[in-house]
């Protein structure tokens, strides 16, 4: 799997793409692969505050329920409503159409503290 170079990643298997002060957040290909068939996604509503390292939602698969952690802090400006009726999209396109939330970041420098694509791939290689 190719991980987009412009994204940053967490050790909890979230990705972040930053455009200005808006961060788009999702789960990685590796995360959806480990979870298996995803059947439900619980996301926060716009206006909710997300904190770095704190759970903001969950993804439920046929195997388990996993928390999703904030890779950056800020206010949710949009949640991907298409996942409510089609959570399986996370298995099909986790780095694209199946993003989870968009956040207006409080500190854009938090983005720079996350793992690069190469560092993340090294991390998941060491993990498996």
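Sequence proposed for the structure above (128 residues):
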């Amino acid at each position: 799997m190719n991980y987009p170079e412009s994204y940053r990643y967490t050790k909890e298997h979230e990705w972040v793409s930053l455009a200005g002060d808006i961060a788009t957040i999702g789960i990685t290909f590796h995360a959806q692969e480990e979870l298996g068939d995803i059947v439900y996604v619980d996301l926060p509503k716009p206006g909710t505050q997300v904190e770095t390292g704190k759970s903001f939602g969950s993804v439920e698969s046929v195997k388990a329920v996993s928390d999703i952690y904030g890779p950056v802090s800020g206010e949710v400006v949009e949640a991907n409503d298409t996942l409510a009726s089609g959570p399986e999209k996370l298995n099909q396109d986790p780095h694209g159409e199946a993003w989870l939330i968009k956040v207006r970041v409080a500190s854009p420098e938090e983005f720079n503290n996350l793992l690069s694509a190469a560092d993340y791939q090294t991390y998941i290689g060491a993990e498996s």
